[in-house]
Each structure stands twice: as structure tokens, then as C-alpha cells.
Amino acid sequence: LIHADLVRENIFIDGDCVSFIDFDDSAFGWRIYDLAVILASVRTEACFPMIQDALLAGYNDERPLSPASVDLLPLLMLVRNLSHVGWIADRMGTPGADESLRRFIRNCVAQAETLGMG
Questions:
Q1: Which pTM does this prediction carry?
Q2: Cα 80 to chain center, whole Å?
């Protein structure tokens, strides 16, 4: 079982206590997808490499990742970005949907380019 939407807005930290909310996307799936969701949400930050290294190191402390799983992260980040396009497509009548769609498509193109698809 994975959360499938582990972004900052869904994580609460109070001292040593960590809580998660917004489980409407949760399903059975690859655990590595949860890491891809986190990374996709911070991909454009200047400290992305540091965030990625810390996330993977912390995860590996509890459950070692295979090199093949780590290699899938960029592709699964693209899958996450593509899911945003589908999500907004159902909400095109809402305020700001046009700009959100353009941003989501830009994110998809940028991530595809990291995979040599652009």
C-alpha cells in the first residue's frame, strides 16, 4: 500500500512525530513511486540533488533500494507529472485550470528531456 501523494502539503511534522494526510490517491503500487512523487514535487528547487540524496539515504537506512529501483525514479517522476495533466483535464472549468495545465505540460516536457525523450 502506498500513499501516492506524498508532497509537503500532506506531511506534518511536530517534533519527533510525523503525520500524513490526504489518502485519496492511496493504492497498491510500487513503493518507489512514493519517492518519485516526492522528488517530482521538488524537481525545480536549487537544492534538488541534496533533497534526493537525503531522501534516498534515509529510505535506504530502513529498506535498501536496488539500483534498478533507483534507476526507475526519473521515469516514475514523469508518470507523476503526466498524472497531473489527467487530473486537471477533469477540472478545466475551475479558475486557473488553463495556467495549471500549461505548467503541468511544461513539467512533463522538462522531465521527458531528462530521460532523453525531448
A1: 0.89
A2: 6
